Amino acid sequence: MKVLRVALDIPLTTLFDYALPDGLWAHAGDRVAVPFGARERVGVVLEVEAESQIEPERVKPITRVLDDAPRLPADWLELVRFLAGYYQRPLGETVLSSLPPRLRSLRPLPREAERFYRAGVNAPSPDTLKAARKRALLETLGEGCLAEGALLAPFAGQVEATRSALRSMLRAGWIEAARAPSGARFVAQHAASREQAAAIERVARAPGSFQPFLLHGVTGSGKTEVYLHLIARVLERGAQALVMVPEISLTPQLEARFRYAFPDTRLAVLHSALDDGTRTSAWLAAARGEAGIVLGTRLAVLTPLPRLALVVVDEEHDSSFKQQEGLRYSGRDAAVYRAKLAGCPAVLGTATPALETWYNCQAGRYTLLELPQRAAPGSVLPAVRLVDLGRESAEHGLAPSLVAAIEARLARGEQSLVFINRRGYAPVLGCEACGWAAGCTRCSAHMVLHAADRRLRCHHCGAESAIPRACPTCGNVDLKAIGRGTQRIEETLAARFAHARIVRIDRDSVRRRGELTRTLEGIRRGEADILVGTQLLAKGHDFPALTLVGVLNADSALFSTDYRAAERLYATLAQVAGRAGRRERPGEVLVQTRFPGHPLYAALARHDYAGFAASQLAERKAAGFPPYVFEAALRAEAKQLARTLEFLRAAAALVAPPAEVRVYDPVPAVVTRRADFERAQLVVQSPSRAALQEFLRAWSERLFAQAPRDVRWHLDVDPIEFD
Ligand code: ADP
Ligand code: ZN
Ligand code: ZN
């Protein structure tokens, strides 16, 4: 009798043995229903053996094989095994958590193929429609043909009402059912430039073999256009492409561009904000080989793709590729590994590579492809100027020259963007009489003042409270907002430019996806004069009329204790600067600073990423930081800091590290208390990845074996965020 070794979602490192009853067939990669304790669970068969190590009478039979989804392919199983091993997570839990929720449940999968829709011949023009929902549906469809899931995705939270609107529009012939698109037709927007063509040829020269590339191109240099041309060749061969982006629900323009370029291709969009049904059907379309393109966030790397022939990671430097809970994997690194398993090229694209990636190029592991110029005719990189706050004094946070520059844009009918990476009104509410400042009762952090709805909010734990009428320690009623966030800058700009149309974009102003899509469209159509926003506005957007970017409060990151702060700051500033002057009219970037001579700003003004990277790498090398060493962090939290530190010290003593591995002393986190837990971590370093991995394996085994109940802990391999 055959024995199946089954992965179950249980935090143990072992697999579980089950018997395969006569008359059933099962292979590695099959999903199966098995009895476990009192209930039935979904498991994944990882191995099939002739006999078990356990006594035969204790091996229970599986209940059935769940064959309504394709068998998980061998390269998928290998990827997931690798991730579990590398990031020190239990294998069963990793396998199951790599599947969409529906595939982890015993409920049968939806049988019917997904329905597709397009606008019908009777459809009125959306502008003439009063009914907002119907108008939005027609606008979402546009000229295209969309799967039901993709059509309903912008209406999360009101899906039922939207479905009923859809039904009535179908009856009226405004919308009609269509067949699933699946062709390879490519609508190129531009003929490739000489540089783009060189990059495309270089990647396409080696189909069918693994090779990692870094596509280093300044903002607007046509990297996306390169991806599209590469994907077109992949689709021509009947193969599949995986495209990963940091954020998809906030960049509807990108999705639209893919749909426009490949009107007949089934595009599977995957991210964590999708409803269950949409995500399941996108996953199935990819796994069945029906979707030619999978476009998604980091979790898209976990999609089975039977005919994978190209992996693209856009904005590869972006820290959101790293998962910050459970399996703490790097989506980018996993993507490169995935390409290796599939034997295909991996293209990592960015204007500001992660230093690790840049270093991999210099070491000859990755092939460097450069796009040094902007692609659109007449478009050049913006001029970056530093506004010395030592010489001109800012009024309400805005330097006179920035105000004048905005004024000039208003007069010319061009748009300006004021970037400040802090949402809310002011980061601190305090009393000047006694020095009191509003703090979070659960965290070692200040409460952020949100003036729009008159609340104090903790950005670490989400706690909220009303604004006190008077200082709780001295009774002073004149409490002051200290520092600035987006809301306060918006208020200042509104007072200064009374007739300008000002739009604020941050996580508070855009709660829903559809709302942001409409706001961004409005901006593109020129329905705003001044944009105020955070990071949300920095990434990937293309605003044709935007010619000025003003940067406030960037200095604080210059002197951070986190050695990655400079790298992140440079990337953010280059990104946000890249929003300016993307068409014929040249752009200008004004950075307000007290340190106009700082080398980071000088490199930014020269658009000299290579120079910046060289100086950062020299510093990292001298200080012994990644990419010259490999790191892992053991993080812990408990009710008392003493307990947290005690746990970490005991953990450090569990396994004696080999000579090549260094275990540092535990240190409290910067925000030590968060949501009533006291946090600390210890870092482990080694110049050898293999030695570090070997140590981590032994160490995590001991940690899992003797984990105390009163301390929460996790290991983070290749950590990037230490807050
Ligand atoms: P990136 O991804 O590097 O930011 P995009 O691919 O979005 O760059 O291109 C930036 C702009 O240049 C877009 O408006 C795009 O339509 C245009 N563009 C890209 N390639 C070309 C080309 N070969 N000729 C003309 N315009 C181009
Ligand atoms: Zn006071
Ligand atoms: Zn808090």
Strand tally: 31
Approximately what portion of the residues adopt beta-strand conformation? Answer: 15-25%
Helical content class: 25-40%
The description of the largest β-sheet is: 7 strands, parallel
Rounded to an integer, what's the Rg over CA atoms? 27 Å
Give the strand order, joined by hyphens, for the main sheet: 11-12-10-13-14-9-15
Spatial separation of the terminal alpha carbons? 53 Å
* Total count of helical runs of at least 4 residues: 19
Shape: globular
- Ligand catalogue: adenosine-5'-diphosphate, zinc ion
Computed structural class:
alpha/beta
Oligomer: single chain
Average pLDDT across residues? 92
Q: Which residues form runs of ≥5 with pLDDT under 50?
A: none
Please tell me about this protein's structure.
The protein is of the alpha/beta class and 723 residues long. 30% of the residues lie in helices and 22% in strands. It contains 19 helices and 31 strands. A seven-stranded parallel beta sheet has the order 11-12-10-13-14-9-15, sandwiched between helices. It has a six-stranded parallel beta sheet with strand order 16-26-25-17-24-23, sandwiched between helices. α1 runs antiparallel to α10 (331-342) and α6 (194-204) crosses α7. It is globular and about 85 Å long. The two termini are 53 Å apart. One zinc ion (ZN) binds next to loops.
Short summary:
This protein is α/β, with parallel strands linked by helices and 723 residues long. 30% of the residues lie in helices and 22% in strands. The structure holds adenosine-5'-diphosphate and zinc ion (ZN) (2 copies).
